[in-house]
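Lab notebook, bench 4. Still working through the backlog of constructs that have no structural model yet. Next entry is a single chain of 248 residues. Request: give me the structure tokens for it.
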Amino acid sequence: MATGKITPQKLAAEARHRLQALGDPVRAAGAQRYFKETVPFLGVSTPEMRDLAADIYQKIKPDWGVPEATEFCALMLTSPYHEVKGIGILIFERYRKDFPKSVFRTIKKWLLADYCNSWALVDVLCPTSVGTLLEKYPELVEEIKGWTTSPNRWVRRASIVSFLKLTRKTGGLDPIYDIVQSHFGDRDDLIQKASGWLLREAGKADMARLEKFLRRHGPAIPRTTLRYAIERFSEAKRKELLLATKKP
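Model written out:
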């Protein structure tokens, strides 16, 4: 329980009420076009969500810690609505610098339960929260490699996008290439796109290494992954790599 006046339960009820008031049915209907799966929306814009999260955080900042933020996020994630889940994550990640290692398993439980039931929610939660845990506890890098074989597509996507923070460090590239290679056989387009995104970001730290990796494994790499991975190369280089990596 929170030590201040606002409990996670009370704040969750308040946040849901405020989100309902901000909802726009037209915007909600439009948001669905970005997702193949059905994702219930209230129709709250991203700037409005971030403003609301900032306002909420100011209320609980003096009194809450990781336990309260985790409880609040868990309550919000049980909602079917994207924006409710999103606010839970935005508050939760404010406490990432104090995350104990145990939060890693908590997040995996949320993913396995399909609480993050879209690529967008996985991409909000994992690069920041799981990424921080991987930096803080390097031994978790080996553990997250086991996520790549999960039957749950959100766990598999999380195994990729959680490494985005590590692309900023040349020394963090080895596990990134291992993770992507382990997904070569995955036919899920959300996994293929995430793999390409991660490779593209890894290329910012070492473009020569990315090109070498693509040339070595070219025919085995899904074309969707490859097209995302080469976006930062010149047009001429992109055409060359697409040709050089085609299956014989």
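Notes after review: The chain has two domains: 1-98, 128-248. The two ends are 61 Å apart (CA to CA). Flag for follow-up if needed.
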